[in-house]
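Side project, low priority. Logging it here so it doesn't get lost.
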Amino acid sequence: MTAIVRFAPSPTGYIHIGNLRVVLFNWLLAQKSQGQFVLRFDDTDKARSEQKYADAILEDLAWLSVVPDRIAYQSHRSDRYDALAEKLKAEGLLYACYETADELDRKRKRQRARGLPPVYDRTGYFLTDEEKTEKEAQGRRPHWRFLLPNFQSDPRSPEKTDVVWDDLCRGQQSVDLSSMSDPVLIREDGSYLYTLPSIIDDIDMEITHVVRGEDHVANTGVQISIFKALGGNVPIFAHHNLLVGGDGAGLSKRNESLSLRGLREEGFEPLAVAALSALIGTSNPVEPISALSDLVETFDFGKISRAPARFEPSDLATLNAKTLHALPYSAVAERLKGLDADGGEALWDIARENLEKLSDIRTWVGIMGGHVQPIIETEDREFINQARALLPPEPWSEQTWKDWTDRVKTQSGRKGRGLFMPLRKALTGMEHGPELKRLLPLIGRQNSLDRLS
């Protein structure tokens, strides 16, 4: 089946790695079925939505090489929502309610005190026109609730009404509508909550699959009812496990260190961020990918665990390093120029296995170019002088290191760590790094003489 899917963020902040999980599962389904991926901005909350965040979301997806097939803004479709809201009102399925938030809270407390579930009692549904006029004369403005189909003939007497669907991640699911309050779809100020515009858009855009986090499972029964009330096709649902922090808490737009924008600024590779987000909490191994398309072949909702997927920053750092280690020079050459750190393909091939982030290459460009503070211990001074005197003439190759150290070993009597570590520290100013047989020709004889002096 060709899938048409959507990612519908609210442009009220930067999206984070948890949101990326939703993006990727939708995008992967579209790619695997040769379908379409729709980016739809839920920007009906005019007070909080900002174009700068919509632009940032587009930039973040482009950074990850996720290109939407269509882009839509809900704020451009208000006439369509108004028309279908009026249709539901005319059919008696959307009714006006005038209780304040405080009044509703007191009503719920009274119900709990009587041992009753805190479900809205549909007072608004039974108001007469005269009562509505009186309330509006008092300055009250209505909010509008959708009448759930959880009764036979009398809305005052809800009955157990199970809405059942086959979830691609969770199997058969069921929600009892009698245990729920009629949902508010329109606020007192006339603005829409997410539910109604989203469902109307899903119908109009012919969305075939709704792929989202498991925190939306409880909403699905209500939404299926609204789909049917509007005469739309009910999509297939997939509610996947959530990505949570190492402490088990949910991720938030307010945690900027985990926003895609923040991770990009910290120097993480988009392929590493995408791979961890998509693979963690599944039966697939978490391993580097060479392109986003690598994830398509193994993507399967059946491989997603029911348990939350824990995101640890250390896991991302490890995967980021492994991702860099596997990248060919051609994949990073332009970015290295942007960092003023392009030491050429030979240096990249030598240094990449010592990188955690791409910017670390600057250290090795500096070592190659002479910007090094040699480390020479007092007890190694005489040994370093001997080694300097035995430094071979150029041209140098990978064989030069062995030829040189064999001669130094014979003259000094040193071997093993006592031979190699003082030379490494003097030549690079570090105790670790790439094989010196490969690095030495890039350092060059004059730089080596200077550092051994």
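Brief comment: Residues 17-32 form the longest helix (16 residues).
Revisit when time allows.
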